[in-house]
Amino acid sequence: MSSLYEEVHSAPSSDIPVRQVTVNVNGESRTANVEPRLLLAHLLRQAFKLTGTHTGCDTTNCGACTILFDGRPIKSCTMLAVQADGHSVQTVEGLASASELHPLQEGFKQEHALQCGFCTPGMMMAAKALLEENLNPTEDEIRWALSGNLCRCTGYQNIVKAVLWAAEKMRAELN
Amino acid sequence: MYPSRFKYESPNTVEEAIKLLDAGKGEAKILAGGQSLVPMLKLRFAFPEQVVDINNIPGLDYIRFDADGTLHIGALVRHEHLEKSLEISKRQPTIAAAAPLVADPIVRTRGTFVGSVCHADPQGDWAATMIALNGSIIVQGPKGKRTIAMKDFVLGPYANSMNYNEIAIEAVIPAPQGVARGGYLKLERRVGDFATASVAVALDMKGDVVVGAGFALAGVGGKTIDANEAASALLGQKLTEATIAKAAAIVAAKAEPRTDHRGSAEYKRHIVETFVKRILVANSTQKVA
């Protein structure tokens, strides 16, 4: 499988070799041939067809492309695909199991935390990173943790409620 | 958006990285956290022939205090490492105060302290912090290492004094004679926006007496502003209402703000003066208003 910027009629240059990268994506090893300038967000969307990761602003502001890279949240439009070689990433597709929603997904549903839904994958991945460190966050801590993710619909109120909902459920599941 | 084409290497040693930079003859760029470089590649403000990714070089992610209190920050220390470091929160208040204010929480997991200083953005929090702390940068090139003091490191907006075949491997912050105090305040319209005004204050105190002080500003001029001359108002003295007011006035006079959509020049200068006062008051043991 290859991922190049072919759709813009930009074939790779002969003096810049295409590189093979192997990335653990949501627990599964995936391989692709990429040109060095390919962004990680585009590798996920174009080569691996994981279109849950959105690209919004393309300038490291909006956080719609947030994924977990070796467990930490990053903006995948701001990392090269070649940099992910040998690393593991988790995308929004990795949250739910075949039969069950992740508590964050359930919380977003219960609290009506999305309208257009464009920012939602990034919001949930940023929230997941928070809950992995702190399963009992205050409202303030949630707002702080999500301050790199923009939402133009909700006014954030219900997103914060959804994360509180998920945290409570995850705490209950631990007991 | 996608960058223009470049060759990519990810060496495993500093020496290999230097060879690649040397061979690039100025057309190679170092990629550390990439939180400034990758957006610039996409916007095609930067179009290097070669990108040298240093993330696979082991041993560059240290935060270390020497026995005498000198602080060393390696080239791959991310903003969030500083934000979460207990040692930093106990011993280096200016850095501890600035770390949570850099960009946004997700950028902070990737972006590096040293990379941000090298990038020399006039809005950059770390270049200002390093100037206030009288820090220096250790760079390594084909001929070995050299140390560049911060006052000689930032030449202007997005310009530093490294040669094309050198790599910044460490930031060094000198040990205080007494106790390191200080702070950092930034006014931004929203998280991640460019600052309206930022103020870095570093103090070195023996009891109530200031034995060292540094001041620098970001966002209020075409480059990072060195306002260290305001130390003259404090050295050998206590932080009183009078000495604080004097220092704050000197710092505010050094600002070079311009009126724009973030506020008028007058407003920004007022913010600078207010922020200096707030940080100094917070570090004073005297009762000052």
From TrEMBL, chain A:
GO molecular function: 2 iron, 2 sulfur cluster binding; metal ion binding; oxidoreductase activity
Keywords, in A-Z order: 2Fe-2S, Iron, Iron-sulfur, Metal-binding, Oxidoreductase
Record InterPro entries: 2Fe-2S-bd, 2Fe-2S-bd_dom_sf, 2Fe-2S_ferredoxin-like_sf, 2Fe-2S_ferredoxin-type, Beta-grasp_dom_sf, Diverse_Oxidoreductases
Domain 2Fe-2S ferredoxin-type intervals: 19-95
Pfam families tied to this protein: Fer2, Fer2_2
Keyword Iron part of the UniProt annotation: yes
Protein name: Unannotated protein
Organism annotation: freshwater metagenome
TrEMBL record, chain B:
InterPro entries: CO_DH_flav_C (IPR005107), CO_DH_flav_C_dom_sf (IPR036683), Diverse_Substr_Oxidored (IPR051312), FAD-bd_PCMH (IPR016166), FAD-bd_PCMH-like_sf (IPR036318), FAD-bd_PCMH_sub1 (IPR016167), FAD-bd_PCMH_sub2 (IPR016169), Mopterin_DH_FAD-bd (IPR002346)
Protein's recorded name: Unannotated protein
Keywords, comma-separated and alphabetical: FAD, Flavoprotein, Oxidoreductase
All residue ranges annotated as the FAD-binding PCMH-type domain in the record: 1-178
Gene3D superfamilies for the chain: 3.30.465.10, CO dehydrogenase flavoprotein, C-terminal domain (3.30.390.50), Uridine Diphospho-n-acetylenolpyruvylglucosamine Reductase, domain 2 (3.30.43.10)
UniProt-recorded Gene Ontology molecular function terms: FAD binding; oxidoreductase activity
Organism: freshwater metagenome
Pfam families for this protein: CO_deh_flav_C, FAD_binding_5
